[in-house]
Amino acid sequence: MRQSQLFATTLREAPAEAEVASHRLLLRAGYIRQLAAGIYTYMPLGRRVLRNVEAIVRQELERAGAQELLMPALQPAELWKDSGRYDAYGPELIRLSDRHGREFALGPTHEEVITTLVKNEIGSYRRLPVTLYQVQTKFRDERRPRSGLLRGREFLMKDAYSFDATLEGLDRSYRKMYDAYHRIFERCGLRFRAVEADAGAIGGEGGTHEFMALADIGEDIVVVCPHCDYAANLEQAASKAELAEHRGKSVPAIETIHTPDVRTIEQLTRHLAIQAGDVIKTIIYSADGNPVAVLVRGDHEVNELKVKNLLGANEIVLADSETVMKATGAEIGFAGPIGLSIPLLVDEAVAAMERGIAGGNETDYHIGNVVPGRDFSVERSGDFRSVKEGELCSRCEEGRLQFVKGIEVGHVFKLGTKYSEALGAGYLDANGKEQSIIMGCYGIGVSRVVAAIVEQHHDERGMVWPTSVAPYLVHLVPVSVKDETQRQVAEDLYGTLQRMGIEVLMDDRDERAGVKFKDADLIGLPIRIVIGKDAADGNVEYAERHSGEKRLVPVAEALDLISGANAASLH
Ligand code: ATP
Ligand code: MG
Prior knowledge:
This protein is α+β, with helices and mostly antiparallel strands.
């Protein structure tokens, strides 16, 4: 491609609302243009990167045995009503109606469409398993479309769906996708972690992993262990409780302590000159309307998701003052475990305390010398607390957990029979019995991946594309196109590289060298060949954007280096 003809304009400044590096740089270098909030045109350079990412995605999915199809973006509302998601999806679902007043939605995801399709195509276990995928534009009316391609309202997604007859089959299908995702993100040059995650809006049962590209501007916090490969999202993460050894010590009987208007842990520790870790904190929740007490150490926080999962509840909320009064006989701030007649969930770190100070179930009173197991039941003990940075990893028990930020670039999810049951997608098993198909779903935000790559691969001058996804491998920059020798050497190289099948951009513009170099840095192609005054002696400068390394080499050697880099970029 000749840069004089390239449909791209570089900008010195990015619009003020472009806060993150990928948004700024993709705009400035002319890779994307905004049409409306969260809605972008991929300009020729951006389109090439997108296609490169798509190609990697397709290769790895086909390698894993998935088959590509393309489903409609325009979907009858009926389907969404049948699955129960028409209301549940909320305002993110873009709704519209046709000339006859029939309701439609623009697909934010395709479980409904594909389950209906498979229901009509597959009747017998003999046709299972099958995994289908598409690369398609998705529509979500995000509350806060922001950060350019990272959170769009119209964006490109690869979505795949697996269909199996058995749970073991689902495990195999899931594993294949999980492995393919590793290869995809590695080939895209991303530093990432596969993170154990909770079942989100899609719902369902069993395992789910989010693939997180590590970046400081990420919206999600990922808990990682520097010692092993443990990674989990913040809600899901578990740490090993470090418990003091205190067997055999005897503790005097409980004592009542007057604590007027002392309601918070902070007030209590100040009032009694103790540490937060000496306190047994009792929080009353309402789980689907039923009161339950959760006990954590004063220096820990309750993890509501863990409580909710253990109880199998749909919803848990902090109990209101009336419920607390009814359950404890006291105002909020004085709940304790002794004598409570509601279920007690005791965090393992509390269960292991030698003694603690707890609420007295009487306004303005606490109780000291409370011994877990002696003074209240620790029958239902488990992990009910949120992890804190620096705690011991629950897997290897050696590393100290770190909190890092991530961008969710992919998601693999065991759905089970949620959609096949709702939409009646069954198959006949070997005994001729009707069964529900067991599903998995697997998404990659293809356009978000492009932005995530930029977040990880840029410097103050511009983007630094990995060769696997760069829009062109080589940037030829004749310093002066008015110089006949330089122009000729550049043209020759350009022709040779094209014949070699190497993607090359040549800056044939009659611009000052400084402008050309600035633009080249911004556009960020992996290899730059500068053709300057040494061209007269048959030498050109070979420069790597990534390392900044430059050297003067004969043209033939430059070609060798380029073809080596090209071979390395093709897996
Ligand atoms: P998020 O929590 O970021 O909103 P999600 O859980 O809604 O993501 P999924 O429904 O699992 O996302 O969609 C699959 C993939 O599509 C995500 O892993 C992400 O990479 C991508 N994606 C989701 N929403 C957007 C968006 N608004 N813009 C760009 N990519 C997106
Ligand atoms: Mg979302």
